[in-house]
Predict the 3D structure of the following.
Amino acid sequence: VQLVESGGGLVQPGGSLRLSCAASGFTFRNYAMSWYRQVPGKERELVAYITSAGGSTDYADSVKDRFTISRDNAKNTVYLQMNSLKPEDKDVYYCKGYTFWGQGTQVTVAT
């Protein structure tokens, strides 16, 4: 099983990034997927969640109306579109499917 995140980087406040998570080794379309984020020394925080068919999503209050989770089951990929980024969004972002985690991708929001 592999979950490989990409798309992180440095962006200015108010900017946008799109994270991707490519999955392999399990039946992706059967599982809900999530994005989490974590700063060192703190617990991972659930950011966004999407059901297996993509029909339902949920978000942390801190990112509602700014972030959008989506998935393409034909490509075994889940996405996180992040708009209006704030310095407090700086974290390592992880995707999760079932009990599997990716390695994380760093997002930094700074001038």
